[in-house]
Amino acid sequence: MNVFADVSLRVSANSMAVCPVLSVQPTRAMVDEKFQIVVRNLPPKQEVTLHSLHRSEDKDYWEAFGYYISDENGTVTVVEDASRGGTYVGVEPMGLLWSLRPVPGSRHGLRLRKRDVLSPMVVNISVYKGHMTQGFSEKDALATVVTERWYLAPGVQRVEIGKRGVKGTLFIPPGPGPFPAVLDMWGGGGGLVEYRAALLASHGFVAMALQYLGADEEWTSDVETGYFETAYKVLQTHPQVCADRVAVLGLSFGTSVTLTLAAYSKVVQPRCCVCISGSHVHPVNKPLIEVLQVMMQNMTKARIDENNHVVWRDVILPIPTEPDLKVDVGRIKCPMLIVIGQDDQNWATVESTEDIEQMMERAGNRHLLTVLSYPDAGHLIEPPYTPHIRFSNFITQHNREKVLMLWGGQTKPHAHAQEDSWEKILLFLQKHLYQDLPPAAKL
């Protein structure tokens, strides 16, 4: 159900005898909500291009487009009709979002990420006569609709955290609560990333976006396990949170932190964990700064491909057998969901997950583990319809070097992985956090 009041915007041109009508429903929606695009009043069998255009917060332009042919009634229905070419092909209702890419001539190595979750991602959807590949800004569209894609649902509160030395942002769903909660951690890029936590809160969870590494222009904070335990307690003791229904979610290096907390912490006792594109391979029982330093010692295993992209996946290979070089996942006592892409070029997540499964099988807790493994998906598995980024600029934490990091993945299968995994992550969290919750606390 769309949580926004729908507004239909239609702009038509006089370039045809009958003005084409472009409909996008809903025009204002959450980023993980599908829309339906229909073009009417075209001549039968008319070739048209559907085009999307977004200006990022960094003032870069991103576009996607698909080729369609109207039916005998002069209609294109994107949910039913196949794109014949463009940035995506086939019947792909959301192809105009997940295949977004920088327009020709843009800066190299861009990655599209939302910084201000209090404002929408604005995307212009247009229809053009003929099958076009470029020059969209120089042509008049037959019709255009302005759409808004939100990470924050109406009524969700955003609260900055400055408590007990914890850096982060808290997102609280509307309603009386208390609610189950999720501690949300991103990876080695550092900084405070809020958009996934905002979306989780929009689905009924109090979510804390936690900063634990410096941003791109800063050096790494000297953060120890106690920092994460404090953040967990800040979240757990919030009056809007069900104290015994807190999950931990991490992506990339955030997975390393998640697994460490779940296996060793006496303070952090998560109801369940979600680990995306990460590994259990890192020195245990050391401050985070030392963990990163040890891992960087293996950077000689990193390689540069033919496109001058940095490939990190070999850094932790072969998976070590020494117990002090990887988290003892056999100690984990809560349900755990692992999400990986089989074309992850940044980290050896496939090999790591196989070892995790074997370790948990030997320890007798394999029944707690669910694995989602996606062919041809890369490292950056994000909320659905986020554009696939195969490589992008990245500043390394150990020497502040700017490189082009290869994340991996192919656009269409990666888009499928994002859509499918997000739905299953939400179901996993709902099952383990909302199950048997008193009705008064449910949405």
TrEMBL record:
Top-level taxon of origin: Eukaryota
GO biological process per UniProt: acyl-CoA metabolic process; fatty acid metabolic process
One Pfam family linked to the record: BAAT_C
Positions annotated as active site in the UniProt record: 252 (charge relay system), 344 (charge relay system), 379 (charge relay system)
Domain BAAT/Acyl-CoA thioester hydrolase C-terminal: 224-434
UniProt cross-references to SUPFAM superfamilies, sorted A to Z: alpha/beta-Hydrolases (SSF53474)
Coiled coil: none
Record-linked InterPro entries: AB_hydrolase_fold (IPR029058), Acyl-CoA_thioEstase_long-chain (IPR016662), BAAT_C (IPR014940), Thio_Ohase/aa_AcTrfase (IPR006862), Thio_Ohase/BAAT_N (IPR042490)
Residues of the Acyl-CoA thioester hydrolase/bile acid-CoA amino acid N-acetyltransferase domain: 32-161
One Gene Ontology molecular-function label: fatty acyl-CoA hydrolase activity
Family: Belongs to the C/M/P thioester hydrolase family.
Designated name of the protein: Uncharacterized protein
